[in-house]
């Protein structure tokens, strides 16, 4: 039931033509997600729920305040737009309001982390795309999110925190094309696919920390699938995850934002480094281990994940047609 109301809240925001309806949709979405987090009550779940409620309440209050002030004072729309943008940045967990994301994700189950990184970001991103944001302000937010998302994950041993910083980095890429509705929706869709595949895989193997990687038992096809999913999330060509970054690079080049584009690509390479660190932990195992033995048939889940990850060339051709 709560999943249905959560989806209805997001759809209300996406279909709204005024700010108050958007705000109402965000609130329905937030209030529906809280019971999902408490599906199996525990101390960590309670902490995560309270943290999420407080952060989202602050963002909602700022949005409601800025909308109300915008109706009263037409002479200073840019200042109100800045407050509205910051309110969405708080809701999304973008830098410099990012600290709650990895901390909260470390207290959540993989299924909830998946929802937080994908579906829960859709409505705030749509609201942000309807705000007239100053280019310099947007550039600062993008740079901060991509840099902090990349550097913050370097010293993490928790896979859920690492995914949290990864989502902050990807958020920076999405915000870079937030004024172009077609570009950021494509990025969001493809990122959601790769993030869901990663969370499904981590949940399947019950992996929570990097040092658990070297005791995971996989056959050869599962190992390659695991490697491809992480590399795809990092945006390595020719895998699926490279397509959205390639689309953003095209958009940035059309705007002649070359310096910003180069910095974003460099930060993306740093994220690839900590993804590869998780893969190294899995591949370096005791000599007596038989992890490379093809001991069982390939499951349909593994086959599906591999097909999705290798579908990039087809999507690239379709983009040109």
TrEMBL record:
Give membrane topology per the record.
Answer: Multi-pass membrane protein
Look up the domain of life of the source: Eukaryota
For this protein, what reaction is catalysed? a ubiquinone + NADH + 5 H(+)(in) = a ubiquinol + NAD(+) + 4 H(+)(out)
Q: What is its EC number?
A: 7.1.1.2
Q: Does Ion transport appear among the keywords?
A: no
Main localization (coarse)? mitochondrion
A GO cellular component annotation here is:
mitochondrial inner membrane
Q: Which residue spans traverse the membrane?
A: 20-38, 50-74, 80-101, 137-155, 187-205, 226-244, 256-277, 298-318
Where would you find this protein in the cell?
Mitochondrion inner membrane
Q: Taking every annotated instance into account, which residue ranges of this chain make up the domain NADH:quinone oxidoreductase/Mrp antiporter transmembrane?
A: 16-271
Question: Per the UniProt entry, what is one GO biological process?
Answer: mitochondrial electron transport, NADH to ubiquinone
Carries keyword Translocase? yes
**Alphabetical UniProt keywords:** Electron transport, Membrane, Mitochondrion, Mitochondrion inner membrane, NAD, Respiratory chain, Translocase, Transmembrane, Transmembrane helix, Transport, Ubiquinone
Q: Give GO terms: molecular function aspect only.
A: NADH dehydrogenase (ubiquinone) activity
One matching Pfam family is Proton_antipo_M
Tell me the protein family, please: Belongs to the complex I subunit 2 family.
Please give the function described in this protein's UniProt entry. Core subunit of the mitochondrial membrane respiratory chain NADH dehydrogenase (Complex I) that is believed to belong to the minimal assembly required for catalysis. Complex I functions in the transfer of electrons from NADH to the respiratory chain. The immediate electron acceptor for the enzyme is believed to be ubiquinone.
What is the protein name stated in its UniProt record?
NADH-ubiquinone oxidoreductase chain 2
**Which organism is this entry from?**
Scaptocoris castanea
């Amino acid at each position: 039931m709560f999943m249905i109301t959560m989806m209805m809240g997001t759809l209300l925001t996406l279909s709204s033509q005024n700010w108050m309806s958007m705000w109402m949709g965000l609130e329905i979405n937030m209030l529906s997600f809280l019971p999902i987090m408490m599906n199996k009550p525990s101390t960590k779940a309670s902490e995560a729920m309270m943290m999420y409620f407080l952060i989202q309440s602050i963002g909602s209050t700022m949005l409601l305040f800025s909308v109300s002030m915008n109706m009263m004072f037409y002479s200073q729309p840019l200042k109100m737009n800045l407050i509205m943008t910051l309110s969405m940045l708080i809701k999304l967990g973008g830098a410099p309001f990012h600290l709650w994301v990895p901390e909260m994700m470390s207290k959540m189950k993989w299924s909830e982390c998946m929802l937080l990184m994908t579906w829960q970001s859709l409505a705030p991103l749509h609201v942000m795309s309807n705000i007239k944001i100053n280019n310099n302000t947007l550039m600062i937010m993008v740079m901060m999110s991509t840099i902090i998302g990349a550097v913050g994950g370097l010293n993490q041993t928790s896979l859920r925190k690492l995914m949290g910083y990864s989502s902050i980095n990807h958020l920076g890429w999405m915000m870079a094309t937030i004024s172009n509705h077609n570009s950021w929706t494509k990025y969001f869709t493809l990122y959601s696919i790769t993030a869901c595949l990663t969370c499904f895989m981590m949940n399947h193997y019950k992996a929570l920390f990097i040092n658990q990687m070297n005791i995971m038992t996989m056959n050869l096809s599962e190992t390659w699938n695991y490697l491809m999913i992480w590399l795809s999330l990092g945006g390595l060509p020719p895998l699926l995850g490279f397509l959205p970054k390639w689309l953003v690079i095209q958009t940035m080049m059309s705007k002649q934002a070359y310096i910003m584009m180069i910095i974003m690509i460099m930060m993306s390479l740093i994220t690839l480094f900590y993804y590869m660190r998780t893969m190294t932990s899995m591949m370096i195992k005791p000599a007596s281990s038989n992890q490379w033995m093809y001991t069982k048939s390939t499951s349909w889940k593994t086959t599906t994940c591999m097909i999705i990850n290798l579908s990039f060339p087809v999507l690239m051709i379709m983009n040109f047609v």
